[in-house]
Amino acid sequence: MIMNSRKIVIIGTGMVGMSYAYTLLNQNACDELILCDLDKTRAEGEAMDLNHGLAFSGSHMKISAGTYPDCKDADIAVICAGVAQKPGEERTALLQRNAEVFRSIIEPLMESGFHGILLIATNPVDIMAQIAHKLSGLPAGRVLGSGTALDTARLRYLVGGYFSVDPRNVHAYVLGEHGETEFVAWSQAYLATKSLAEICDTSHGKFQKEPLYAIENEVRNSAQKIIQAKKATYYGIGLSLLRITRALLGDENSILTVSAALNGEYGESGVYAGVPCILNRQGIREVLVLPLNEKESAQMQHSCHTLRELSKNILI
Predict the structure, then answer these.
(1) Per-residue model confidence (pLDDT) at position 227
(2) Catalytic-role residue among 115, 178, 204, 305
(3) Residue 235 in contact with residue 243, Cβ under 8 Å?
């Protein structure tokens, strides 16, 4: 894929899509940005608003509202569109409605000649990424979801706070579903090259393992706490999408926990789940398999089983 001019299309100009767009502008992360939405007037207004800030950003980005034919030569198409859950609606019914929304998006997207990377932000992101893969016909490595990238960032922030170290020096991962069955691979959690378990065991009581498990629960429940407080989450996911985008466009070969198609990794197949992956300009170069302990392997199996059960009755 040729990336002389970094072009991104955002499909869905709600709070998540526009938080992502705002971070792209502030960090000059692409050369051209196209905003697509069923509400074309809104997309036009959002493009105008961003353009009016260009003089303050130091960016030379070209920003406009567009339609699916404008996606043909995009390097990355990011889907942030979806429908909200109705009161009393079952999760499977919501999934079916979102699958229909994705069909209405992906069919014209692919008809445009798009052959870039498809990045999914719509929840439940693991299942929606799998649906996008099936509908698009793109290679699995070029269809990924935001996965547990944000959950992993939340984990590192909280663990860094507990040990009073920079979160960037915390190496730990949240795996599985971006949701209720996600879990932390504590056996593979480190500060620099020293395991958290060893640090706790040799700290003479200064650090305990129990607070780490409380942190895991806080990570798992963070989104709901934010939603209760401000009705929605968008800044964190916007920045997560930016980090994934930089890894892709920059050909970084960086490791991020994204929703990826599993084909035997972790003993799982036929499912998308959040796992550490090496990302470059081709998409997912490789899924990294961490040496999980017995408990963590069971948690991964349970999480993937949950995702398969949720998605098995969706008509695509």
Answers:
(1) 86
(2) 178
(3) no
